[in-house]
Design goal:
Strand order of the largest sheet: 5-4-6-3-1-13
Number of helices: 9
Distance between the termini: 14 Å
Helix content: 40-55%
Order of helices and strands: EEEEEHEHHHEEEHHHHEEHEE
Bound molecules: alpha-D-galactopyranose
Largest sheet: 6 strands, mixed
Radius of gyration: 20 Å
Oligomer: single chain
Shape: globular
Number of strands: 13
């Protein structure tokens, strides 16, 4: 028997660097997928990538120090609870890598869900989210929050997923955009400092809680930030204000108020640039350029930061403006940006 599963990438409308701080996020899955075919294998583990046209063969699941570690990580974590026989896992994907679309979470969920379906594992979707999140943190070693795995699993076409990462309660908010559309501009910038700086921000947030003697960012109030050293005060302010912006964005979506939604995106970008300091000059250039065009309602860097993608909300098709932007950007940075129109999609499922 062969099982086939697709798992989507995701974007995040707003709520950046809040998911490891017990905060709010508002992602939606996009119509770009990791596609996995899983069947039992007679002897060894076989992990095939269509992109690399390469099969990694393993007698036992263990570190490969390649992309396949996302697959092996899931297997290892599931193996703690279940007997898993050797499998053949074929992967193909049209989720761009490194642009902030969570291609790794999509791969993890696709593999985990495929194994569940093939082997009839008694695991709920929420449990799978935790297992995949653990695989990435403990096996691959990226200390990410839970937003990516959660949105890849639970998203629903036509809706944004309003998630409280402190309680994992969630609500579907209709993507009521009044004719406006979301796009992503991939800056083409891939910075290796992304994961080290990401982990540093996490440590800074832990330090903030230690200084303020709090167990969670949910117990931190703006009036208490004065006690913090400058840099930490800026980080904390971002987290508190970004949470507030998520709540306002949910309200704006419910009212179909796309102008307000756009302003909140720009405000989030400024905060990520000036307070949380996870933007980069290429991203700032694109957002600044778009901000001067009246048909663009809002834009911001999204995901971990330091390059990757810009989420744009535009009231008219962006292709025309993009041609001009591309010329300016290419001349300045010698890298070609890419434009993608993104539509919402359902979370992981068997096909
Ligand atoms: C990365 C992580 C997410 C989240 C974002 C920032 O994408 O994987 O968990 O922390 O950065 O919001």
């Amino acid at each position: 028997m062969t099982v086939e599963v697709i798992a989507p990438g995701r974007v995040n409308i707003i709520g950046e660097h809040t998911d490891y701080n017990d905060g709010f996020v508002l992602p939606f899955a996009i119509n770009k997928y990791v596609h996995v075919r899983i069947s039992k294998s007679s002897k060894n583990w076989e992990i095939y990538s269509e992109k690399f046209r390469d099969t990694i063969t393993l007698e036992k699941p263990g570190k490969t120090y390649t992309w396949a570690d996302y697959v092996v990580g899931v297997v290892k974590i599931l193996n703690e609870k279940f007997e898993i026989p050797p499998l053949r896992i074929e992967v193909r994907s049209d989720v761009p890598v490194g642009a902030g679309f969570s291609s790794s979470a999509a791969l993890e969920l696709a593999v985990a869900w495929g194994m569940r379906e093939l082997l009839n594992l008694p695991v709920t979707k929420k449990e799978m989210v935790h297992l995949c999140h653990r695989a990435e943190n403990e096996f691959v070693g990226t200390r990410c929050g839970v937003m990516d795995q959660f949105s890849v699993a639970f998203s629903r076409k036509g809706f944004a997923l309003f998630l409280d990462t402190a309680t994992l309660e969630y609500e579907y908010v209709p993507l009521n955009l009044n004719g406006a559309r979301f796009y992503v501009i991939d800056t083409g910038v891939r910075r290796s400092l992304r994961s080290s700086e990401y982990n540093r921000r996490r440590e800074e947030c832990e330090e903030i809680l230690r200084i303020l003697s709090k167990g969670s960012f949910r117990e931190v109030f703006m009036s208490e930030l004065e006690q913090l050293p400058d840099a930490l005060r800026k980080r904390a302010r971002h987290v508190l204000e970004e949470n507030e912006r998520v709540l306002q964005t949910v309200e704006a979506l419910r009212e179909g108020n796309v102008e307000k939604l756009g302003e909140l995106l720009y405000a989030s970008h400024r905060s990520l640039r000036d307070l949380y300091e996870v933007s980069c000059r290429e991203a700032d250039y694109i957002v600044g350029w778009l901000e001067r065009r009246s048909t663009v309602l809002g834009a911001r860097i999204f995901g971990g930061g330091f390059g990757g993608g810009i989420l744009v909300l535009s009231s008219t098709p962006l292709e025309e403006l993009f041609t001009d932007l591309m010329k300016d950007y290419l001349a300045r940075f010698k890298v070609a940006p890419q434009l993608l129109q993104v539509d919402s999609a359902d979370g992981v499922k068997r096909i």
